[in-house]
C-alpha cells in the first residue's frame, strides 16, 4: 500500500544562495611565513612600539610618528629635492632625526611612487624622483641605524585603510587612488599583494578605450585618461575652449583663463551646485564604475576603497560610479557585488601605512 504524498506547498521552494551569507573574515588569520603566529598576535606583541612613516611625493616629503593604533603623534614635512638621490635620502634622515627626538622609534617605513624589487630593497624606477635601480633601504638603514621598510606609496595607503580605515575586516580589499592619474593596491588575506614581479596595482593603465586618448605611459585609452583628476580638467577645458554656454561658470571661476581650469576647480564648482561641473563629474564617475567592474571580474574583492584628491567630490563622484559598476558587473544579479566606499584616512594614509608596515615587518623578522 502506497502512502499518499503530501500536498505541495503553496509557497515555491527557494534555495538560499551561498554567497548571500558569507562567512565573516577573521583578521587573525595566519599570514604566510610568520612562524605560525597570526597577524593579530604580531600586532599585540608590537603594540608599544612607535614607528616613523615617510610619504614621498612629487612636491613634498611628509613624515610622522605613528603608534600601533594608527594615530599620528607628531608630523613634519619638507620640499622634495627630486633631482638628486642623495638629497632625498638626506631629507628623510633629517625628518627622522627631528621626529625621533623625545620618542623611542622602533622602525622607519618609506612610501614612494615607483616600482620596487620583490625584496623591497631597491627602487627600480620612480617617476618623481631620481631613483633608478637605487639601493635605498640599504643606504637608509646605514644612515638611520634602524630597520627600514621600503614600499610603494599606494601599497602603504591600502594597508592603512585595511588596518585602520574603510577597509577593516575585509579579506580581499582593492584600493584606488584618484589624483593626477589612477593608482591602485591590493591587500589579500592579510598581506599586500605585489604580483610576481612586484609591480601589481597599475590599474590606471588598463586599456578601457582602444585608440582613445594618449596616455603618458605610451598607450592609448588607459583608464586614467577617463576617470582621473586630469581627465576631469581636460574635459572641462575642452568645453570652456568651445565657449559653450553651459561653461560660463567654469570660465568665470578662472577669469576666462581656460588653461587654469583643473579637476580641483571643477570639483569645487560641483560642490557649490554648478550643474555643468556636476555633469562632468558624473561622466568621470561612470568611467570609474566601468573600470571597477572590470577589476571585480578579474580580482573579485569584497570592497573597493576610493581615495585621492578627486574624492573631495564625495557622493557626486561615487554615486554615479556605483550605478555604472552595477550596470557593467559581469554576472550581475547572480553574484555578490563588492561594496564601493570612500577612503577614511585622507592624505595621511600613506605615512600611516608605511609606518605600520615597518612595525609589523620588524616584528615578524626580528
Main features:
single chain, 366 residues, alpha/beta, 5-stranded mixed β-sheet, 10 helices, globular
Described by strand count, sense and barrel closure, the largest sheet is: 5 strands, mixed
Write down the overall mean pLDDT: 86
Shape: globular
> Rg to the nearest angstrom?
23 Å
- E-strand count: 13
Helix content: 25-40%
Low-confidence segments: 1-37
Strand proportion: 15-25%
Structural class from helices and strands? alpha/beta
Along the chain, the helix and strand elements come as HEEEHEEEEHEHEEEHHHHEHEH
Number of helices: 10
Query: Gap between N and C termini, in Å?
Result: 76 Å
How is the largest sheet built, in terms of strand order? 3-2-1-4-8
Give a short overview.
With 366 residues, the protein is an alpha/beta fold.
Protein described:
The chain is of the alpha/beta class. It has ten helices and 13 strands. The chain has a five-stranded mixed beta sheet. Helix 4 (153-164) crosses helix 10 (349-365) and helix 7 (263-271) crosses helix 8. The longest helix has 25 residues, at 275-299.
Question: Topology, pairings included?
Answer:
Elements: H1 39-45, E1 50-56, E2 60-66, E3 72-79, H2 85-100, E4 105-112, E5 115-116, E6 123-125, E7 132-134, H3 136-144, E8 148-152, H4 153-164, E9 172-178, E10 182-188, E11 191-192, H5 229-241, H6 248-253, H7 263-271, H8 275-299, E12 303-307, H9 315-328, E13 339-342, H10 349-365
Parallel strand pairs: 1-4, 4-8, 9-12, 12-13
Antiparallel strand pairs: 1-2, 2-3, 5-6, 6-7, 9-10, 10-11
Helix pairs in contact: 2-3, 4-10, 5-7, 5-8, 7-8, 8-9
